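Repro:
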Amino acid sequence: MNEIRLRALEPEDLDVLYAIENDLDLWSVGYTTVPYSRYLLHDYIANSQCDIYADRQVRLVVEMEDGSDVVGIVDITDFEPRHNRAELGLVVRKKYRNMGFGGSVVRKMIDYSREVIHLHQLYVVIDSNNTSCIDLFKNYGFKESHCLEDWLYDGEKYRKAVFLTLFL
């Protein structure tokens, strides 16, 4: 398994964040509907309080353990403090996919969610056709709880998504 480290976003991450947020291939599996400008992303990096209670999310950079390159971005979003649950989102850059980095990130985020922010539950919503991603989360204990019919729209057709949960 490839080892990674997680860290806060830095101004130097602007180009990578810009590329990920504006990758049209990712829009159909997320909530993005318009391009993000560099200005807006710079403002996001500068003004994020890095406090899950204030921001209702935590966004971290996934980088190689030696700091040589950014592997991707991971988010804990839709944080619900009353019920101690949140959604986990992960983007691994194309050149690092299928190399074991996803598993390293999921493992670290489970530990972080349990030990640092004391969540009771993590969940993911994944396109039902993305079986490798579904299998990745199942390998770390996530259980499929239900199917979301017509949940994702790619501009041409609606697709099912799978809702998986992990109780910490």
